[in-house]
From TrEMBL:
<feature type="domain" description="Amine oxidase">
    <location>
        <begin position="23"/>
        <end position="461"/>
    </location>
</feature>
<dbReference type="GO" id="GO:0006598">
    <property type="term" value="P:polyamine catabolic process"/>
</dbReference>
<keyword id="KW-0285">Flavoprotein</keyword>
<keyword id="KW-0732">Signal</keyword>
<dbReference type="InterPro" id="IPR001613">
    <property type="entry name" value="Flavin_amine_oxidase"/>
</dbReference>
<dbReference type="InterPro" id="IPR036188">
    <property type="entry name" value="FAD/NAD-bd_sf"/>
</dbReference>
<dbReference type="InterPro" id="IPR002937">
    <property type="entry name" value="Amino_oxidase"/>
</dbReference>
<comment type="similarity">
    <text>Belongs to the flavin monoamine oxidase family.</text>
</comment>
<keyword id="KW-0175">Coiled coil</keyword>
<keyword id="KW-0274">FAD</keyword>
<dbReference type="GO" id="GO:0016491">
    <property type="term" value="F:oxidoreductase activity"/>
</dbReference>
<feature type="binding site">
    <location>
        <position position="247"/>
    </location>
    <ligand>
        <name>FAD</name>
    </ligand>
</feature>
<keyword id="KW-0560">Oxidoreductase</keyword>
<dbReference type="Pfam" id="PF01593">
    <property type="entry name" value="Amino_oxidase"/>
</dbReference>
<feature type="coiled-coil region">
    <location>
        <begin position="120"/>
        <end position="147"/>
    </location>
</feature>
<dbReference type="InterPro" id="IPR050281">
    <property type="entry name" value="Flavin_monoamine_oxidase"/>
</dbReference>
<protein>
    <recommendedName>
        <fullName>Amine oxidase</fullName>
        <ecNumber>1.4.3.-</ecNumber>
    </recommendedName>
</protein>
Amino acid sequence: GNSAEGSTHKCRKTSVAVLGAGVAGITAAQVLANHSISDFLIVDRNDYVGGRMRSASFGSKPDDGTPYTVELGANWVQGLGGEEGKSGSENPIWTLAKKHGLANAYSNYSSILTYDGGGAADFLDLLDDLDEAYAAAEQDAGRLLAENLQDTSMRAGFSTAGWKPGRADMRAQAIEWWYWDFEAAWPPEQSGFVFGITGYNLTYYQWSEANNFVYDQRGFRALAEGEAAEFLEGPYEDPRLLLETVVTGVSYGAEGVVVSLGESGDCIEAQFAICTFSVGVLQNEAVAFDPPLPRWKREAVDQFQMGTYTKIFMQFEEAFWDPDTQFFLYADSRSRGYYPVFQSLSAPGFLDDSNILFVTVVGTQAYRVEQQPDEVTQAEVMEVLRAMFPDKEIPEPTDFMYPRWSTDEMAYGSYSNWPVGMTLEKHQNLRANIDRLYFAGEATSAQYFGFLQGAFYEGRDVGLRIAGLLGGSKWETGECNAKTTIGCGSMDYYSTLHGTTRLDEYNVSNGWPTSSFVDNV
Ligand SMILES: Cc1cc2nc3c(=O)[nH]c(=O)nc-3n(C[C@H](O)[C@H](O)[C@H](O)COP(=O)(O)OP(=O)(O)OC[C@H]3O[C@@H](n4cnc5c(N)ncnc54)[C@H](O)[C@@H]3O)c2cc1C
């Protein structure tokens, strides 16, 4: 590794460098603190704790004109659990949301009205068809997993289960978007089947199918700040929390890790480091690793998908939509996913009478929208709203705002999605440490990727591993073993991952008469 010795730059020494102050980083540091390891530093480029739990001020309140707080990033606690009479298993994010008293309300996905270019149009019966196919697809995915059969795409899984929306059937396309893309931020073609289904089921069937929407005016990140305050002073007064500090390089090895900070040349010399940067940050090579990440790690990073999920906020003088309905689904006649779902924050039990509406776009529509100026997007959205509500005079919004997640250096996207062709072993390569450099975050969670609970569990796991390594060998036999949900020490990885076809199987009987490597030029 790089030694800072003799240089004029400041190099702080610590036991553990926690890179990122999102849910994974805060949870990892908390685990260290709980195991009496107080010598750590937490670094983040943001000026707050919470990472992709990110809020912003928007619009104004009717009574005093002060702005509302809305969530640009994570918004729901997804899958609650812990209901009375049930086994008692609960989403840890739900436990923490209750602990910190976050204002939230049940998001009723059945409170929905449907529209197309001609105005209101009831096509919710299609949802029942998709429900039925999805139930069959779940059975099928379970069989593929249990019998080690070849995985496929969610698209193929849907088709086999009997759900085959026509390309021009824009109502069915809108229903499918609402069912799949709204959650995955990628279309079924690009989502893995088995892991797409397990990802959904482990959250919603293990706990409960409820999604609770957080509208707390401190911001959802009050959860992360509240947890951080239990082991950091304030938490913002604690000298171990280095905010507005950009990590530019990570030099790692068997002896330790040196983290380069910003352009100052300052650094951190640590025994261990935990990198919680999003898979988007890793894909964009925003951090220089020394030595470069090995091929088994880079292939996993490059294959896992970073999605983009963009909420476009509008405040109006008055609500022209049904005040009691939460969701408004729009089927555009030309483009799938074109301003497909509007959500009312004005609905009872949310930000009552705020007259705030937001529309969500994902995937290619999100990339398009994020690259254009606000005015262009506003004009497009207004055209859609006027088509949905032809009988209403709809004035321009009084406030309009949306983030640019796909290009934001803190994450380069919103959250991850399991792509077609990724195996559990290859995903494990995304998780695995290299020497003393560890990784954690929503994307490293095989079971809860994309969710806050994924970041929580992975942060906890890596925190415990490092606490164990720093605490000595007795940890490895005590608190964790292969049967628990918590691992110990260094992680497994697969240096070579094979396909299913041997070279000698590229032969005539498989329709491959010509050598793959022929070159007569
Ligand atoms: C729009 C959107 C909607 C979402 N909706 C939901 C939802 O409703 N429910 C749900 O459960 N989940 C949702 N998620 C996902 C959830 O927000 C994430 O799973 C979770 O917050 C990820 O936590 P993390 O700790 O893994 O990563 P992060 O929160 O990204 O933490 C990593 C930190 O690293 C920092 N960092 C990155 N690069 C550098 C660098 N070079 N130097 C220094 N610091 C750096 C970042 O600033 C960041 O704070 C949503 C996410 C987005 C963006």
